[in-house]
Amino acid sequence: MTDGPTINTIAARAGVSIASVSRVLNGLPTRQETVRKVMAAAEELGYVRNAVARSLKSRRTHQVAFAMADIGNPVYLAMVRQIQPVLKAAGYRLVLHSTDAIAADEIDVLRSLGERYVDGLIMSPLRVTDEHLRTLAAARAPVVIIGSVPDGTRVDNVRADSRTGVRLALDHLHQLGRRRIGLVNGPLDTVPGASRGAAYAEALGALGLPYDEDLVEIGDFYRQEGARAAAALLTRRPDVDALMCANDLIALGAVDVLRASGRRVPADVAVVGMDDTDLAAASWPSLTSVSLGSAERGKAAAELLLDRLLNGEREPRVVTVPPRLLVRASTSGREPTPQYTAVPSEPRTTDGAAG
């Protein structure tokens, strides 16, 4: 006999499995509807006065969540490799959540912070909506955003300088004599898509090249979509002599299409990607790419979150990680030791509202 409710009676009352109850009571990632059912059942049965109550009273789970758009994207894997050791050294476990870039899922993750299944959250949303901003403002635990947020948003923020990165890439292509430089971009309603599209137009103007809508194709940040978009651009403008791609996966899709069509890379068409993922150096030909400091951004985000957990009242900080251009065979025509063209190498940190 037991003197009070058990995990079995909570599971029966909530209508969920015993394993689900165990996950909730131990602070492990679980669907929010399941969390709500288990917590309600536990409170009804009085279990909240013991194990759950102790967790709520301490207000510490020693867990931090990282919510990303696509767990299969090498950019996020590079971030995880830096986030986890920083958190582990401070006694925290890392919980991963892939949102598939669905805004409603990201907002649900932010709202779920009130359930206190983690002590803080690192999030990298592709889109930042008004609902994101309202939910961020009401978040019940510290949050760090990897990616740009609007001016005045009071949240710790780690961002890339993709505009400078695009300029580095187009300067490089221009120096190689390329003049019909196409852009294969991601969706313009995403933070990176909008930023890279604007940067492309600005860089062309600075180089004295005209902006031509026929040289721009919008796809998505996946290899298959990169191939589709590149094929559409090349069909419309077969005279293109270079492609600036919004990420490495798009660029690899473009190389697939070029190779299938009999075009040589880079003799006929030079290709540049962004993010400098592990795939860039391993591809054939190896891919010239703009590093946006994925690993550095992950580490900076983890450090900001830990500092926020210790100093909750300080002003928000913005860390900007500078880009680097790594020149490889897809533009140089040979497999060289990577060359680095960089702006100042240290991330820039500023206090005050993120801008």
From TrEMBL:
Ranges of compositional bias, category Polar residues: 329-342
Single Gene Ontology MF annotation: DNA binding
Domain of life: Bacteria
CDD domains listed in its UniProt record: HTH_LacI (cd01392), PBP1_LacI_sugar_binding-like (cd06267)
A Pfam family recorded for this sequence: Peripla_BP_3
Entry keyword set: DNA-binding, Repressor, Transcription, Transcription regulation
Position of the signal peptide: none
InterPro entries noted in UniProt: HTH_LacI, LacI/GalR-like_sensor, Lambda_DNA-bd_dom_sf, Peripla_BP_I
HTH lacI-type domain mapped to chain residues: 5-58
Region ranges (Disordered): 328-355
Protein name listed in UniProt: LacI family DNA-binding transcriptional regulator
